[in-house]
Specification:
heterodimer, A: alpha+beta, 7-stranded mixed β-sheet, 5-stranded antiparallel β-sheet, 24 helices, 23 strands, 40% helix, 19% strand, elongated, B: 367 residues, mainly alpha, 3-stranded antiparallel β-sheet, 3 strands
Chain lengths: 652, 367
């Protein structure tokens, strides 16, 4: 046995030597691995270990304030307190903590159940993150939560600036709103340093001027443990010095050209007549500065900023409703109707096709092919020249003039006035509008017919403009032919109040029209209001001399079952300027489905203009204030009623 | 015969010293690892001292009894440990769906730890009994294979993949002493590969596969299954040359290392003592294992030699798997670092192995 055993061991020895080699190799591999981790990659892991125990605390920058032309605050920030829950800590003693928490927050039974379900439903990986439970709590709740904070593990109240819009819905489309960045934003904007929870401009100026308003976030790096609990005190943060801290850079302020007092007057003018939807624009004739840009109905940016539910959002954008999210001043397009006639006139005058003094006879219609093209409401104007045709809005005259000028000349003239292209206001994906050409009809409708020219001449059918485009075109008519780029931002101001950048007026183009022709048109436009035959004569007022043109945009819409009959009514337009002799502002009013421009849109425009000169700019000498007039407001309204009654009788 | 020549002369000082060094730095490290913990867990290093003391006692007893008795009762011990493994399913506490522990009083122990040794000894006995000179064929391997398969399957059923693998590898280390016919070797290798593929596709549960593969794609699994390994590697790597200093390892002090006592104490050690510390520890293990192999090659008989090899194999595989998983070269399978990791059954098992080595060492031939 012994011998066999001995022989066995010696037989094993060679094996054991191999094993020793394997052991040395195996442990060498481990040692090399250690060498790689600790020496070769040591720096990388040291950094990672440091990242582990450091936490970036971001210090939000303050978003720039938006003010109107007189320094009234339109968008500002105020401190708000938001309640967050970290589910991982909160859920440890949820049964005990949650009822108290709900009580302190003053939740209803229903809210409570929903919140509980939400917290429990947070999936594994997100359980260490802060979940917003309630935004902008009031002081009282804040005090309660602060008193009981020791009973509420995993609950934190974090102060954050909240964007507020003191004017609410007023100018909401132009100013816009902000809300939290979405996952898509984060993906689509790499390198712009957006982080979950940041706010971003969503509409209007807030969106277009995001980079100016936003500023840059600051940060501090603090010590933490594996749960993210911050271990170091404030003193530590200061001790860490520059590489651990970067101060935030506040956003820059904007001063707009908008005058909120005028916006209010515009709102008043629409509200008094209870029009549910429409739009208006007021532009400074000699600068292109936009004083008012109004779209009705409007969203409430305060509501949008806090965040609306999906259901509410659906409600807001439901196509059967009034769609308050749509900016009717620059995004929506409408046929300009008769407000387009001055452009047709310029086209014909430029071509030398019509003689302004030459009269033609209006019999209420002209016939082309087997179709009759009529004047509105069956009017028969008799002998009219350019001026009286504009004053009375005689379609027959402009059918004749437009037909003679031909489609493409009208197109060119309209483009010259800035139609069919974006004005360049730079917000809210502005619509370009559309002015058709013969080629377009050939291409899209198969063939061009003369009748199309007649419809285009009076701004119907496929002609599309925006409210702002029309305002700028009328400003050009009023200022002797200069088309401006609309200006909404007056200047950029640093938080300490110094002006960083000022924006001068920008000329877009000189319009191809002689002074004589423009003067002729302007006189006629004054006649629309001043002349007793004028379509807007009923808004003639003693305080300010208003000039302009009424328009009615045909709505060709077949009503669906149960739809409001109003929706098939035509849109009412008024486009004009004041004071007529020395124009300062151009104003355009659109009343959606308002019907007649003269009776519906013109009074709104007149009130805006009157308010502008009498209230918004008190003390400004108005050369054109007419003699005192004894007609009172009440009498004006009586006249309006009679006028409407006359219109109805004429119809039947 | 050898023991009579006096304990002082025969006592294996090399083995004793290296085990003392490892155990001591293990306790020191455990002190640091638990220093930021409150309550009972903060006192774990004291318990570890108790375990080591108990283990030393057991080792002395194991060393004192002549190993020929172990040879004689090898199968008895083997069968007893198999029963203990079965008992786990009957009496055992189910912890997170696994049956690994038996509770006796306040003492929990894990029979699968001891099975590593009893199986290896049983295989060692089979090996030493067989004295034929020809190379081993498949049929010769049948009996030791069966000895191996029973405990491995039982441990797999607990389920405890890591321990099952160690049980198998430790005993295969012993079997490697045998001269195996080339054809048999290839058959075994191929069937081993096929078996692994089969196991992968049918035997393993999704979470097991996930744990086995996530270390290869750590960034993707940073927050779930690879979290431990990722944090462990950060700890090791950030130790650099000289480490961050005793009780100053941030990964441990701030609790980023999930299990700094049983599976990941090396990460704590490596961050606080750097490459110097980790190489020192690896050197200790290298010395210990080579020392054990030396004992094996100078043992007075085949059984003694095979027992010493099984101990070397036990240490070797534990070191390879623990360091491998802690440094993210191997999946996290829950294998302890001998005498260094905290844990009752682990410490006892390792100390039994030390006792066995001492036993064989003291009864060496005097050639």
């Amino acid at each position: 046995m012994q011998i066999t055993g001995r022989a066995g061991v010696s037989e094993f020895r060679e094996r054991i030597r191999y094993m020793a080699v394997v052991v040395v190799l195996g442990l060498t591999v481990l040692a090399l691995r250690m060498f790689k981790l600790q020496i070769l990659d040591g720096d990388k892991y040291r950094r990672e270990a440091e990242e582990n125990i450091l936490r970036m605390i971001y210090i939000p920058s303050t978003r720039g304030v938006i003010r109107d032309v007189r320094g009234r605050v339109i968008a500002a920030n105020r401190p708000a307190y938001n309640v967050y829950v970290v589910p991982r800590w909160f859920m440890r003693r949820m049964d005990e903590v949650f009822p108290k928490f709900a009580e302190y927050l003053g939740l209803t039974r229903d809210e409570r159940d929903r919140l509980e379900a939400r917290i429990r439903g947070v999936d594994g990986r997100k359980r260490d993150q802060y979940i917003l439970v309630r935004g902008d709590i009031d002081r009282e709740t804040l005090a309660i939560l602060d008193t009981h904070k020791d009973e509420l593990p995993g609950v934190s109240v974090i102060a954050a600036p909240l964007r507020t819009y003191p004017f609410g819905t007023l100018a909401a489309h132009a100013v816009g709103y902000i809300n939290e960045v979405s996952a898509e934003d984060l993906q689509q904007r790499p390198g712009e340093d957006y982080r979950a929870g940041d706010r971003i401009g969503r509409m209007g100026i807030e969106r277009a001027w995001e980079s100016i308003l936003r500023g840059r976030r600051g940060w501090v790096r603090v010590d933490r443990d594996h749960r993210g609990l911050i271990l170091s005190s404030r003193e530590d943060i200061q001790r860490f010095g520059a590489d651990r801290r970067q101060d935030p850079v506040p956003g820059r302020d904007l001063v707009l050209t908008l005058d909120m007092e005028l916006m209010r007057a515009t709102e008043r003018a629409f509200s008094q007549r209870a029009y549910p939807s429409g739009a208006a624009a007021v532009v400074e004739v000699r600068t292109g500065r936009v004083l008012a840009l109004y779209s009705r109905p409007a969203l409430d940016p305060n509501e949008m900023t806090i965040g609306v539910s999906l259901q509410r959002l659906r409600e807001l954008s439901d196509s059967r409703g009034l769609r308050p999210l749509v900016d009717r001043a620059i995004y929506e397009m409408y046929p300009p109707g008769s407000t387009f006639k001055p452009m047709t006139a310029i086209a014909a005058l430029n071509a030398g096709i019509i003689d302004p003094s030459e009269q033609i006879r209006c019999v209420g219609y002209i016939t082309r092919g087997n179709r009759r093209f009529r004047c509105a409401h069956g009017h028969i104007h008799g002998l009219v020249n350019l001026q009286s045709a504009l004053i009375q809005s005689c379609n027959v005259y402009f059918f004749t003039a437009g037909e003679a000028a031909r489609m493409n000349r009208i197109h060119r003239s309209a483009m010259d006035f800035g139609f069919g292209r974006r004005t360049g206001i730079g917000i809210n994906s502005e619509a370009a509008g559309f002015i058709p050409t013969e080629e377009w009809y050939n291409r899209v409708w198969g063939s061009f017919r003369r009748g199309y020219t007649l419809n285009t001449a009076i701004g119907q059918q496929n002609t599309r403009t925006t409210v702002l485009q029309l305002a700028l075109a009328y400003a050009a008519l009023a200022n002797g032919g200069t088309l401006y780029v609309p200006q909404l931002i007056e200047r950029v101001v640093s938080p300490d109040g110094t002006t960083l950048q000022e924006f001068p007026r920008t000329v877009r183009r000189r319009i191809d029209a002689s002074d004589t022709h423009l003067a002729l048109i302007d006189r006629a436009l004054r006649g629309v209001v001043a002349d007793p035959r004028g379509t807007a004569h009923l808004v003639d007022m003693p305080e300010v001399s208003l000039a302009g043109k009424t328009g009615t945009a045909q709505v060709s819409r077949t009503l669906r079952e149960g739809e409001d009959r109003r929706l098939a009514a035509d849109h009412a337009w008024f486009a004009g300027f004041a004071p007529a002799e020395n124009p300062e502002i151009a104003v355009v009013v659109l009343v959606e489905h308002g019907g007649s421009g003269g009776s519906e849109a013109a009074p709104v425009a007149a009130q805006i203009v009157r308010d502008y000169f009498m209230r918004v700019r008190p003390g400004t000498p108005i050369e054109s204030v007419a003699r005192a007039n004894t007609r009172t407001q009440r009498e004006r309204e009586r006249q309006l009623r009679e006028w409407r009654a006359r219109q109805r009788r004429r119809h039947h | 015969m050898a023991i009579e020549r006096g304990i002082r002369e025969q006592f294996d000082w090399g083995l004793f010293v290296v085990v003392c060094i490892i155990a001591t730095i293990g306790v020191v490290n455990l002190y640091s690892a638990t220093s930021s913990l409150a309550g009972v867990r903060g006192e774990l290093y004291v318990q570890q001292i108790y375990w080591l003391a108990l283990g030393s006692g057991v080792a002395v007893i194991v060393a004192a009894i002549d190993y020929k008795y172990y040879e004689r009762y090898a199968y008895v011990g083997y069968i007893a440990s198999i029963f203990a493994l079965i008992a786990v399913f009957v009496l055992g506490k189910s912890i997170r769906g696994t049956h690994r522990w038996i509770q006796i009083g306040s003492f929990q122990f894990q029979p699968s730890d001891f099975v590593k040794i009893t199986t290896a000894i049983a295989v060692a006995k089979r090996l030493s009994m067989d004295s034929h000179v020809e190379k081993w064929t498949l049929r010769d391997l049948l009996a030791p294979g069966a000895l191996l398969a029973v405990p491995v399957l039982l441990v797999l059923a607990q389920p405890d993949l890591g321990t099952a693998m160690i049980v198998a590898l430790v005993s295969l280390g012993v079997l490697a002493l045998a001269k195996i016919e080339r054809r048999t070797f290839w058959i075994l290798l191929i069937s081993g590969v096929l078996g692994s593929v089969f196991m992968w596709n049918f035997g393993l549960k999704a979470y097991q596969k996930d744990r086995l593969t996530s270390f290869m794609d750590a960034d993707k699994h940073k927050l779930d299954s690879a979290y431990q390994a990722v944090q462990s590697v950060i700890a090791i790597g950030s130790g650099s040359v000289f480490g961050q200093g005793f009780m100053k390892g941030t990964q441990n002090q701030r609790h980023f290392i999930p299990d700094p006592f049983t599976d990941f104490p090396l990460a704590v050690w490596a961050q606080e003592w750097g490459l110097v510390g980790s190489l020192l520890l690896l050197a200790c293990y290298l010395f210990l294992i080579l020392w054990a192999l030396n004992i094996a090659s100078t043992a007075k008989d085949r059984f003694g030699s095979a027992v010493a090899v099984s101990c070397a194999s036990l240490f070797f595989w534990h070191v390879i798997f623990n360091v491998g998983m802690v440094s993210q070269m191997l999946p996290v399978v829950g294998v302890t670092l001998p005498m260094f990791s905290y844990g009752g059954s682990s410490v006892l098992t390792m100390m039994i192995a030390v006792g066995l080595l001492m036993n064989v060492s003291m009864r060496r031939s005097t050639l």
